[in-house]
Amino acid sequence: MISKNQIKLIRSLEQKKNRRREGLFVAEGPKVVGDLLRAGYQPHSIFSTTDYPEAQLVTDEELRRVSFLQHPQEVLAVMHLPTQQSPTPPDDIDQLSLALDGVQDPGNLGTIIRIADWFGIDTIYCSADTADAYNPKVVQATMGSIAHVHIIYCDLAKLLREVQCPVYGTLLDGKNLYQEELSANGIIVMGNEGNGISDEIRQLVNRRLLIPNYHKTGEETAESLNVAIATAVTCAEFRRRYPAFAE
Prior knowledge:
247 residues, alpha/beta, 4-stranded mixed β-sheet, 9 helices, 10 strands, elongated
């Protein structure tokens, strides 16, 4: 049986301030929980409707009471937050990384983390106004990839001023992604869903890229791509050019 205090704690972790205060976050489903445990994340408590290692056995109804999912997935774990890492020193950024400037939708952030994992990008730098990576919706959207990618919140402008590597950004005044010279290292900046890359960060992008559209001249088309889709397209082209760095 899940106690009232346990229920209160779990439900409180929907809010960022409570996650930070308690140093805990929620993960759900055998895949997500299993990936986190294998990556070395430390569980505070685990609840499951089936025989799951180290889990407290609960009923389907009890799991529904604490789950953040419409359809709970057998196991829910309360995990300790990892120690916040410091930004990598500028001269150490020798591979490809992502930087997120005000990405606020949890689903987009979770998908971007999953994309980074797929393309072998192990570090994402986030501005302070980017959604919290340990929001239950973000964790679920990563489908376990949050266990494999380092998420670092920092003063993004300060970091980009100091780095000694190319800083890429997708902008409407950029040059065709498929025709521009790309590098095996650098930081790819992706911006806010509605406003794109902020003015301050835009000034620090030294390699401007454009994902071209292919609609017929004179026909109406979408104004822009979803930020997660744009991230996938951009990362795919970098990895097409430099596949060895994905190993």
